[in-house]
Amino acid sequence: MIRLDKLNKSFGDLKVLNDISITFEAGKTNLIIGQSGSGKTVLLKSIIGLHEVDNGSIFYDDRDFTALNHKGKKEIRKEMGMVFQGGALFDSFNVEENVRFPLDMFSKMSEKEKNNRVSFCLDRVNIQNANHLYPSEISGGMQKRVAIARAIALNPKYLFCDEPNSGLDPVTAIVIDNLIQEITKEFNMTTIINTHDMNSVMEIGEKILFISKGYKAWEGTKDEIFNTENQALNDFVFASDLFKNIKKST
Amino acid sequence: MNLFEHVGKFSRFLILVLSKPEKGKLFFSQIVKEIHKLGINSIGIVVIISLFMGAVIALQTAYNLMNPLLPEYLVGYTTRESMILEFSSTIVGLILAGKVGSNIASEIGSMRVTEQIDALEIMGINSASYLILPKIVAAIFINPFLYVLSVFVGILGGLLASYLTSTVPLSDFIYGTQFGFIPYYITYSLVKTVVFAFIITAIPSYYGYYVKGGALEVGKASTKAVVNSSILILLANVILTQILLK
How far apart are CA A115 and CA A103, in angstroms? Predict the structure, then answer.
């Protein structure tokens, strides 16, 4: 479980996050949605500690991340897995080495155990016969799946995904979404996904936080979205004719 | 950003870089890789440039010192002194600042803009230390070998040029390379080489590490890294010469 309590963040005079409070539950796919520039990437990067917040608290299972020193934060970070928008695979490592890297850095496993873990993670994301290929030699969808395999290598308690299906075709995007949801359930992780893909919202949005102009504008489930009176959310979610028609039909 | 802000930011950067590596075994394997990448892969350019510079120094000295009052062995002596004192440390340092510096700045800059550095940080890894410390240690280790190689190849170039153009008898040139040898000059140049190795790796790493934006900014950072590390090498050269040869 990750709980945010009155989170604020500014860059100079520009206030990007204003009093954001919410609880993201374990075993659920929690989505942060909002327009470009609404502050969702800053929020995600603040939660994982890439940005220092101005004030407010971030609790990882009752451990106050914002109050911890560098060593304490480092320990919590070992429990995190992150899937970046572009995959962020290490160019100089092949697929297998990318997944193996967190194990080499932090686990006390034997070589055999590491090999088994790498195979398990790659099998779990349906990557076969690509162990020795480099990131530049595989497709965008495969890169995302390898990034997920790397993120789960250390069996994290918290999984963060920044626009995991951006730049992917609709079929591959759904595969990635479902994969993230399956993994979340299977390992009972607290997963937070940053997205503006409405297909993802409708597919896996078990808990949704809608951010508008740096404020928390709405929270609920994908089913509640259809009945919301929140104008900003309606304008955002039902912007396309396709989704307008879906709403009408419900 | 003004000079003082850069100095402050660079100091904080160095504190990050010089912290204890996460895993000793991994750190040493990275050093070996970097020695290969930064040092072994530079042998070719160092040999070619040193050979031709040694040859040119010998020929220019020979043509400018055509005087019956001056002994011919001065050509060998001048070639040796030029290579030991200045060329093999400073000029090779400047060449490596271009070759290695742009490589480091663009490599680390690309990692920054593609979020690979963020990925390391999320894992709880000190990315600055993990990525940059092996480069600095590797360059400090391997560059003195490149320096020694450059001196030998440069003198060989001078000797070949003198012999092939018949400007100086071979025996005179060899005598000149042994004449009035001061071993401390080697120490002085090795100290310079080590300082330059630090500049060649740390400055481009700094520019690459803090790059913001995309490919265009990575290119700009790479250019800045080469220009500023070259200026710092020249500045350090003056300061070290004043301190060490006083």
Answer: 10
Indicate whether this model's pTM tops 0.90.
no
> What is the C-alpha separation between B144 and B150, in angstroms, rounded?
10
Chain A residues in contact with B125 by the CB 8 A cut-off are: 105
A151-A154-A158-A164 Cα dihedral, nearest 10 degrees: 10
- Pick from B26, B116, B121: CB nearest A50: B121
Report chain B residues whose CB lies below 8 A from the CB of A93.
none
pLDDT at A50 > cutoff 90: no
Chain A residues closer than 8 Å to B110 by CB: 91
Asked which of A115, A140, A155 is the last residue of a domain, the reply is A155
Mean pLDDT of B176-181: 94
pLDDT in tens, B181-195: 999 999 999 999 999
CB A43 within 8 A of CB A33: no
Q: What per-residue confidence (pLDDT) applies to A75?
A: 87
DSSP annotation of B124 = T
Whether residue A88 is found in the same domain as residue A7: no
Q: Pick from B35, B22, B211: which is nearest to B134 by CA?
A: B35
pLDDT mean over A61-66: 91
User: Using one digit for the tens of pLDDT, what is the confidence trace for B53-94?
Assistant: 999 999 999 998 878 888 889 999 999 999 999 999 999 999
Q: Are residues A55 and A166 in the same domain?
A: yes
What pLDDT does residue B218 have?
Answer: 95
Residues A16 and A32 in one domain: yes
ipTM, 2 decimals?
A: 0.84
Q: CATH code at A28?
A: 3.40.50.300
The DSSP element (H or E) to which B55 belongs, if any, is: helix B43-64
A77 and B122 within 8 Å at the Cβ level: the answer is yes
**Mean pLDDT of the region A47-60:** 92
Q: Are B122 and A82 inside 8 Å of each other by CB?
A: yes
- Inter-chain residue contact B124 with A74, CB threshold 8 Å: yes
Range with the lowest mean pLDDT among A17-31, A198-212, B109-123, B159-173?
A198-212
A68 in a domain, yes or no?
A: no
Q: Are both A173 and A233 inside the same structural domain?
A: yes
CB atoms within 10 A of CB B242: 9
Q: Which residues of A touch B (CB under 8 A)?
A: 48, 50, 73-75, 77-78, 80, 82, 84-86, 88-91, 101-102, 104-106, 160
